[in-house]
Specification:
By secondary structure, this protein is an alpha+beta fold. The chain is built from 17 helices and 23 strands. Pfam families: HGTP_anticodon (PF03129), tRNA-synt_2b (PF00587).
Length: about 500
């Protein structure tokens, strides 16, 4: 990417962030108190869009796969859970401070940004070498070497412009709190940094009560919390976020076959949502997490570059084995087919709901120049997949008199039983169309004087702005076909 193109992408991203706030998708949390860094609230349309994304993922997992079921585990878990998972000892990031600006950074992020800059300058080999050196130092836990690499590369603080860095230190990312009615008797517990462990500790509960046979999966959607040193890029990296995870339990030795299966399945799912193939790619991990023997990210090309939206990991038997050892409870499965007991291996698919929301929003944000008679004008709209759109249709009476509002209200009252629809009568019809375009509503239904004569309405299609006349009796079927999850499922 050239420097000019990078500036253009940054400007587009700023527009998307502004659009998200102005039109009710995402607000800074506690904004009246000047906000809370890296914490955001979803507005009325953002909540609908995010819920649609989560419902689509949930049904894709638990409805289309007869051997995948879902649970909803608690956020609070016994503290030993995080000892067994390795989070107490290993869940940390390398932290470095700039003495002049007094700002704190993740050391690996500073180096990654430098590598991205090399790629933007047309030096991919230099970027790859830099990343390789960084990964080797992090794997060896050589924090002094990481600092030396930062100095060697001439990496400076974005605020102060100096390289007056402290030593690199490890910073645990878990939030801790106390549980107990009396402070002196309170015991330390953690806000979960991932949702996966709630699945692992319930492995046998689900397997026995559901009479599940391996291979089978357990899915979950839930909040997780990480005390990120530096959170950035809007909702891409937050301290409170939501994960959509599925752990797939399999026989030892079969993990790589299932790893490839879910790797391909999940990429196909993202394409079905409307994310173009040209903006999706795999990124294999060079530095593996402590629990994995293989890992790949599905990355989407945001305006700020390719970044992870989902990870597929072969977790081996790390989690169940450690929980068995620490809890002293047997977490084995007896396989009737081979007459053996074993601790299952696991392949994980883990999607960041907030990151996917941001990817969908970035892809949907559309600016185009359109002809308006002899003039041209700029048009902005959200080209959301109809199944994900916060509002499926807007019912708009042409004028606020002569019985048109009453007729439009009757259509609204009927359609709201099946779809998320809205009724709006204020302002000129053109302005109302524009408002719906800006929140991604795929259909606008105009009620006019002809409607009173023959019970037909005009449907305006968001993407093309084309209009067609249809009977009121056909509205439910027409809208239903377009917004149904079935259109996504058929591509899977």
């Amino acid at each position: 990417m050239t420097a000019q193109a990078q500036i253009g992408s940054e400007q587009v991203f700023r527009k998307i962030i502004a659009h998200a706030k102005e039109y009710g998708f995402v607000f800074p949390s506690s904004e009246i108190y000047d906000g809370l860094q890296a914490v955001y609230d979803y507005g009325q349309y953002g909540a609908e869009l995010k819920n649609n994304i989560k419902r689509l993922w949930w049904q894709s997992m638990t409805q289309l796969n007869e051997n995948v079921v879902g649970i909803d585990a608690a956020i609070f878990m016994h503290p030993l859970t995080w000892k067994a998972s390795g989070h107490v000892d290993s869940f940390s990031d390398p932290m470095i401070d700039n003495r002049d600006s007094k700002k704190r950074y993740r050391a690996d992020n500073l180096i990654e940004d430098k590598a991205d800059a090399y790629e933007a300058e047309g030096q991919p080999e230099r970027a790859a070498t830099l990343r390789s050196r960084m990964n080797a130092l992090l794997s060896a836990e050589d924090l002094t070497g990481v600092r030396d690499l930062i100095l060697e590369e001439g990496i400076t603080c974005p605020l102060s412009g100096t390289a007056n860095w402290t030593e690199v230190r490890q910073f645990n990312l878990m939030f801790s709190t106390q549980m107990g009615s009396v402070a002196d008797e309170a015991s330390e517990i953690y806000l979960r940094p991932e949702t996966a462990q709630g699945i692992f500790v319930n492995f046998l509960n689900v397997q026995k009560t559901g009479r599940m046979k391996i291979p089978f999966g357990i899915a979950q959607i839930g909040k997780a919390f990480r005390n990120e040193i530096v959170a950035r890029q809007f909702i891409f990296r937050m301290r409170e976020f939501e994960q959509m995870e599925m752990q797939y339990f399999i026989r030892p030795g079969e993990e790589m076959n299932w790893y490839e299966h879910w790797k391909e399945t999940r990429l196909r799912w993202h394409r079905a949502l409307g994310l173009p193939e040209s903006k999706l790619r795999y990124h294999d991990h060079e530095k593996l997490a402590h629990y994995a023997n293989a890992a790949v990210d599905i990355e989407f090309e945001f305006p700020f570059g390719f970044k992870e939206i989902e990870g597929i990991h072969s977790r081996t038997d790390f989690d169940l084995k450690n929980h068995q050892e620490l809890s002293r409870k047997k977490l084995q499965y007896f396989d009737e087919e081979i007459k053996e007991s074993y601790i299952p291996y696991v392949v994980e698919t883990s999607v960041g709901a907030d990151r996917l929301f941001l990817a969908v929003l970035c892809q949907a944000y559309t600016e185009e120049t359109v002809e308006d008679g002899e003039k041209t004008k700029e048009r902005t709209y959200l080209k959301l997949h109809p199944a994900l759109a916060p509002v499926k249709a807007a019912i708009l009476p042409l004028v606020r008199k002569d019985g048109l509002p009453e007729k439009a209200q009757a259509i609204y009252d009927d359609l709201k039983l099946d779809f998320k629809v809205i009724y709006e009568e204020k302002a000129a019809i053109g302005k109302r169309y524009t408002r719906q375009d800006l929140i991604g509503t795929p259909f606008c239904i105009a009620v006019d004087y002809q409607t009173l004569e023959d019970n037909t309405v005009t449907i305006r299609h968001r993407d093309t702005t084309e209009q067609e006349r249809v009977p009121i009796a056909e509205l439910r079927d027409r809208i239903g076909r377009a917004v149904s999850f079935r259109s996504v499922f058929e591509q899977l």
